[in-house]
Amino acid sequence: MSDTNIIPAFNLFGETSAFPDVVHCERVFDRAGLHDWVISPHRHHQMTQIFHIEQGHARATLDGEEKWGRALRPLPRG
């Protein structure tokens, strides 16, 4: 069994409704705060994400590799 079979897919993290728009912008603060600042592993079939971090730093595990820092980082769909 591959990891993609056990990692849930969302349109937006934690949402089950249809994707709301073609370009969706929101602050990480607004969504992560709703989930106690922990975003569990998940995928997006219809969305490529770009994170722009202006202040502070972020820590994320992407495809098993831990990343730290401040950057404009694209996360491809899938």
Can you offer a commentary on this structure?
The chain is mainly beta. Helix content is 6%, strand content 23%. The strands form two sheets. A two-stranded antiparallel sheet has the order 1-4. The longest helix has 5 residues, at 28-32. The chain is globular. The mean pLDDT is 75.
Task: Give me the secondary-structure topology.
Elements: H1 28-32, E1 49-52, E2 58-62, E3 65-69, E4 72-75
Antiparallel strand pairs: 1-4, 2-3
How many strand units? 4
Largest sheet strand order:
1-4
Strand content: 15-25%
Biggest β-sheet strands, sense, barrel: 2 strands, antiparallel
Helix content: under 10%
Overall, the morphology is: globular
Mean pLDDT: 75
Residue stretches low in confidence (pLDDT < 50, at least 5 long) are none
Helix-strand string: HEEEE
Radius of gyration: 13 Å
Keywords:
78 residues; mainly beta; two-stranded antiparallel ribbon; 1 helix; 4 strands; globular
Question: Would you kindly provide a brief summary of this structure?
Answer:
The two termini are 16 Å apart. This protein is mainly beta and 78 residues long. The chain is 6% helix and 23% strand.
